[in-house]
Design goal:
This protein is of the alpha+beta class. It is built from seven helices and ten strands.
């Protein structure tokens, strides 16, 4: 079964490795406390047609592989306002031996249904891969929620979970073919169950903590990888092979 959410997140680029390491070890941030911490390594491979039909429709298709799971995700940009990106995100977990998800036989998977609406019968090609070493922190607000939460969140879930924000501390490596072409350090702040005001207080607390070592960026991982691989391949006349 597919999981559908509207993702709201702010992305920061980190200039100082020691700040990046410190963020991964946080136990509290302003009015928030860390209630869960998890680390995983991801392999994220991106796909599109030769004509980049998905990207022209402000959409992305990604296969994520970790030690424990494989999942396919369709994302569509909705808005970008005051440093926060909003995206529709539809994800389906793949069975261990499910290999035909990209073919017409995989159209029963909800993310692929969305993709086929945009590209028709045009074939998909692998563009590039991004390896991500991620430390995820789940932050809980120290005070109970008193305001209406984001659209679609039930009162029962609010009562159970309170106001939570996810902070992902990422080491990113872009692979164009077999080689690593670029790296960067990121911190993403995503709203899970918080009010808009409380979510923005988490962003503000992060900026107060690390200040000049953070730079707000609207360049997604896909955009970063595409720019790197397209620029290098165009320089050497090999972009067609990246597909």
């Amino acid at each position: 079964m597919a999981r559908t959410v509207v993702e709201r997140e702010a992305r920061f680029l980190v200039s100082e490795p020691s700040v990046h390491r410190a963020a991964a070890r946080l136990i509290g941030l302003g009015p928030f406390r860390v209630i869960r911490r998890h680390r995983e390594r991801q392999r994220n491979t991106y796909f599109d047609t030769d004509e980049m039909r998905l990207w022209k429709a402000q959409s992305v298709l990604k296969l994520r592989e970790t030690v424990s799971a494989r999942e396919i995700t369709f994302k569509k940009a909705l808005a970008y306002r005051d440093g926060v990106a909003s995206r529709l995100e539809i994800t389906s977990r793949l069975r261990p031996k499910q290999r035909a998800w990209m073919s017409r036989g995989g159209a029963a998977i909800e993310p692929m249904r969305r993709v086929r609406r945009l590209i028709g019968t045009n074939p998909l090609r692998r563009l590039f891969t991004i390896a991500t070493d991620r430390t995820t922190l789940i932050l809980a607000h120290r005070r109970p929620a008193s305001l209406k939460l984001r659209s679609g969140l039930s009162e029962a879930r609010r009562a159970k979970e309170g106001q939570r924000v996810e902070v992902d501390v990422d080491r990113v490596a872009v692979r164009c073919g077999r080689r690593v072409a670029a790296r960067r350090l990121e911190i993403e702040v995503e709203n899970l169950t918080a009010t808009p005001a409380v979510f923005r207080s988490a962003i503000a607390a992060l900026r107060r903590r690390y200040g000049r070592d953070l730079r707000l960026s609207r360049v997604s991982k896909f955009e970063f990888g595409h720019r790197v691989c397209y620029t290098q391949a165009s320089r050497h006349g090999t972009f067609a092979r990246l597909h």
